[in-house]
Design a protein that fits this description.
Structural class: alpha+beta
Strand order of the largest sheet: 13-12-16-17-19-18
Largest sheet: 6 strands, mixed
Pfam family, one: HATPase_c_4
InterPro entries: RecG_C_sf, Schlafen_AlbA_2_dom, Schlafen_AlbA_2_dom_sf
Number of domains: 4
Mean pLDDT: 88
Protein name: Putative HTH transcriptional regulator
Number of helices: 16
Organism: Dysgonomonas alginatilytica
CATH class of the largest domain: Alpha Beta
Helix content: 25-40%
Number of strands: 21
Length: about 450
């Protein structure tokens, strides 16, 4: 069911799960197992799922591969459980029961509709406030956002002679209805101290209409990153520490392609000492592969919002966004780009490789310093912090002590009771060997 509701997938029968090991099936049983699999899928799943079942050989062992294709009539669910409780989706490498919002999205996919195209009957167009969006549209396109334009962009629809807005127009409006229906359709920006989300340096909530959100979030990023100078030949060239075009495109993608049907989730732009992280509600469309960013892929989740953004010049031609990110990253070999699906959100990270190396070097240096201190004596945690010139035991010191113990470079003097009041630490033989290697590297 989960494969059919998503991008499809494969099941292999005859492989042990933990650890992954080919155990094989009896050749005499292959046909009967194939029939059993077909019967289970047919009797348990609704709508009907037709698998592609093939036999494979790995050496002298036999396997069965069950290929499930992406279905055209979702949601697929367990008959006995019903649609509400028996619909499942893939999240990363796991299955998750779908809630009503996700089931609704699957229903819309079956009808080739998008959430932003649905009509909102709470307020007719005549009572809706969207003056700011009208002005933005005029400024960007040099055209009036009149009834003809609204209809052409499918931002309004006629219901028995009365014009009503779609979800998309509500999101573009500055009406109170937007805040009541989409109080989560905002961007939370934060600059954190260090590499953890424990201490804020600055934060901002952007809850304007969605046409302005991406640029405001981008400006927040600009305020918190540096512009330095690099020397190329005889010229000094100034450049930002991060690829700005790529970051702007990632923020725009987060706004354009987020899943606005997911309640209680907002876009997050987080800036740390070592990276910029952008998280958008909703999973990646099955047809988009971030590992092939230069192939000009395009799949608009929000079929009304995306063309409007294109009309406003906020996004480029279809399929150019990922290629733009990939092209600029080539000019920033010191930045690592990562992406992943986390929960029901999609996340991208721009990571400073040099920062990670510096942190590793600093940790290595501090490891060596602690080991040198413990070479000829045993010390408690507090005594060790004093030797390092610290006023009190820091969280960083606790983490390093734990790491040194895990790596067997130091050990407890009272190993049977690590919380003993007289507990101290001493260097191990492995720790002494580590110091010798460090000393040789210096030479």
């Amino acid at each position: 069911m989960a494969f059919s509701n998503d991008a499809g997938g494969e099941l292999f029968i005859g492989i042990k799960d933990n650890p992954h090991e080919v155990v094989g099936l009896s050749e005499d049983d292959l046909t009967s197992i194939e029939e059993q699999i077909s019967n289970i899928i047919y009797t348990k799943c609704y709508p009907t799922i037709i698998p592609d079942i093939t036999f494979l050989s790995e050496g002298d062992k036999h396997l069965i591969r069950v290929t499930i294709y992406r279905g055209n009539t979702p949601p697929y669910y367990v008959k006995d459980l019903g649609k509400l409780h028996g619909t499942f989706i893939r999240v990363g490498s796991t299955n998750r029961q779908a809630d009503e919002n996700i089931i609704g999205e699957l229903e819309r996919r079956k009808r080739n509709l998008s959430f932003d195209s649905e009509i909102v009957l709470d307020k007719p167009l005549s009572a809706l406030k969207y003056d700011s969006f009208k002005q933005i549209y005029k400024d960007k396109t040099n055209e009036d956002l009149d009834l003809q334009a609204l209809k052409k962009l499918e931002l309004i629809k006629d219901v028995e002679g009365v014009l009503y807005p779609t979800q998309a127009l509500i999101l573009f409006s500055d009406d109170n209805l937007r805040n009541s229906l989409f109080h989560f359709a905002k961007i939370e920006c934060a600059r954190f101290k260090g590499t953890k989300s424990e201490t804020f340096i600055d934060q901002k909530t952007i809850n304007t209409d969605i046409s302005m959100q991406a640029e405001e979030a981008y400006n927040f990023v600009l305020r918190h990153i540096n512009k330095g100078a690099t020397v190329e030949g005889v010229y000094t060239i100034s450049r930002w520490e991060y690829p700005l075009k790529a970051i702007r495109e990632a923020i725009r993608n987060a706004v354009v392609h987020r899943d606005y049907s997911l309640t209680g989730k907002d876009i997050k732009v987080a800036i740390y000492d070592d990276m910029i992280e952008i998280t958008s509600p909703g999973l990646l469309p099955p047809s988009i592969d971030y590992s092939a960013m230069e192939s000009r892929q395009s799949d608009a989740k929000n079929k009304i919002i995306a063309p409007v953004f294109k009309r406003l010049g906020i996004i480029d031609q279809w399929g150019n966004g990922l290629k733009m990110i990939a092209d600029e990253l080539k000019e920033y070999p010191d930045i690592e780009f990562k992406w992943r699906e986390t929960g029901l959100s999609f996340q991208v990270q721009f990571i400073k490789k040099e920062f990670i190396k510096q942190q590793e070097l600093q940790n290595k240096s501090l490891y060596a310093e602690i080991l040198l201190i413990l070479t000829n004596k045993t010390l408690s945690r507090k005594e060790l912090s004093v030797e390092l010139g610290q006023k009190q035991v820091s969280g960083q010191l606790n983490k390093i002590i734990t790491k040194l113990i895990d790596d067997k470079l130091i050990e407890h003097t009272i190993p049977n009771n690590i919380n003993h009041p007289s507990q101290k630490f001493q260097i191990t033989k492995r720790g002494n060997t580590f110091l010798k290697i460090i000393d040789q590297e210096k030479k």
